[in-house]
Design a protein that fits this description.
By secondary structure, this protein is α/β, with parallel strands linked by helices. It has 13 helices and 14 strands. The structure holds zinc ion.
């Protein structure tokens, strides 16, 4: 069957949604349950209903539009929330491409054997209590403690943010009970990197999604006078941090090539001109597509930090803030995506996703796959986020054909 998406309609949906939550700094600020998000939800609900799909929402605010009735559903979607001052394609492209696919199937009067369902997951960006609130609630990977104790990035507890929205901590925890039976999940997303663009490919078929380990760490030494304390008597927490950052990065680059390590946030205390830094707090983010490597990295990096601390007469502390396991996309999904891509004549590359996605969470309950399309200069989470519309058209056409295949068992 040769159905294609209607790019003009998909484009106008993306542009329309991008008007909701416009940030004066030029981008879009639409964190989940903000005024802008509630407006965007209303907009999406209307689009789903206009498409003739059956609309529903679960206790975590995940939104669904279903085509077809009984049976294991093939799910497609992503998220419509954004980071603060983010772009218009991250997440939205996946939800609206999914909606466009279902709309085309509906218009052509095609009735696949299995139901199809478009989904928009709540708070993928982690503005509330860690990444993937909605998809974690959907698969049952959230606990009450996290929801009660977690402080959102707006300084208020989640409970307060939910007030007046109709959602509660209880309803979020119960969302998993409303989960339909799922045959498979597909997510189209911008790449958020520059591999496809640099290599000249339109489509990325994701083979793995990297797992991550986020930690808050501190080296604690002693704040001394910068003019009077001899170098050999200092317990300088900044030098320990610098030493650790360099050695750890070198270790990853030489022994675990392909894995990632980032020191994104560093606070030096007391942070004054002439005082030896007595304490440094820093973030440590390391990722790998291999579970064994991720585990090895944790052991090696922590041992290295302890060693540096003891050599320099300091203490080292570290605690986990967030962690996810790497995910392998099942070969049967990669196989269908490859075949359909070849039939369409689109050049594709099989890639690893270094960023986390809802598909990673859904993979704990159903086969999940991803299609990447290039984004200009690899930029995302920024007003500068941009794509080539033809790439989106191709990605959405691949999505459409793959959905039909998965929903029509031989
Ligand atoms: Zn996203």
């Amino acid at each position: 069957m040769d159905i294609k998406v209607n790019l003009e309609r998909l484009k106008s949906d993306i542009e329309e949604l991008a008007q909701v939550g416009r940030d004066p700094r030029g981008g879009i600020s639409r964190p989940s349950f903000s005024q802008a998000d509630l407006e965007a939800r209303q907009w999406l609900k209307e689009k789903i209903c206009q498409a003739g799909l059956c609309f529903r929402q679960d206790g975590a605010g995940n939104m669904f539009g279903r085509l077809g009735e009984k049976g294991r559903a093939v799910l497609v979607g992503s998220h419509i929330d954004t980071v603060l001052n983010g772009g218009k394609f991250d997440g939205s492209a996946g939800v609206l491409a999914g909606l466009e696919c279902l709309r085309r199937i509906q218009e052509e009067g095609v009735r696949p054997a299995r139901p199809l369902e478009v989904v928009s997951f709540t708070d993928e960006e982690g503005n509330l209590v860690g990444d993937f609130l909605g998809s974690r609630a959907f698969v049952g990977l959230l606990n009450r403690e996290e929801l009660e104790q977690g402080i959102t990035s707006f300084g208020r507890p989640l409970k307060d943010i939910l007030a007046g929205t109709g959602f509660t901590l209880e309803s979020i925890l119960r969302a998993q009970e409303e989960r339909p039976e799922i045959e498979a999940f597909l997510e189209l997303h911008i790449e958020q990197g520059s591999v496809l663009e640099t290599e000249g490919f339109t489509i990325g078929i994701v083979e793995r999604i990297a797992g991550k380990n986020y930690r808050w760490c501190s080296f604690v030494g002693k704040p001394d006078h910068g003019g009077t304390t001899p170098l050999e008597l200092r317990r300088d927490a900044f030098l320990a941090t610098a030493d650790f950052a360099l050695r750890a990065t070198q270790r990853v680059a030489t022994r675990h090539y392909g894995s990632m390590i980032t020191f994104g946030k560093v606070a030096v205390h007391p942070g004054s001109f002439s005082v030896v830094p007595g304490q440094v707090d820093f973030s440590l983010d390391f990722r790998s597509a291999s579970p064994e490597t991720l585990e090895a990295l944790e052991k090696e990096l922590l041992a290295m930090a302890e060693d540096i601390a003891s050599t320099r007469g300091l203490a080292f502390y570290s605690r986990v803030v967030d962690r996810t396991e790497p995910v392998e996309v099942p070969p049967r999904l990669i196989g269908v995506l490859r075949e359909e891509c070849q039939k369409l004549g689109y050049p594709f590359l099989q890639v690893t996703s270094g960023a986390g996605h809802d598909a990673q969470m859904v993979s704990s309950v159903a086969d999940s796959g991803m299609i990447f399309i290039p984004c200009r200069d690899g930029i995302s989470h920024s007003p500068e986020e941009d794509i080539d519309w033809e790439d989106l058209e191709k990605g959405a056409n691949l999505l459409l054909r793959t959905l039909l295949r998965l929903a029509s068992p031989p």
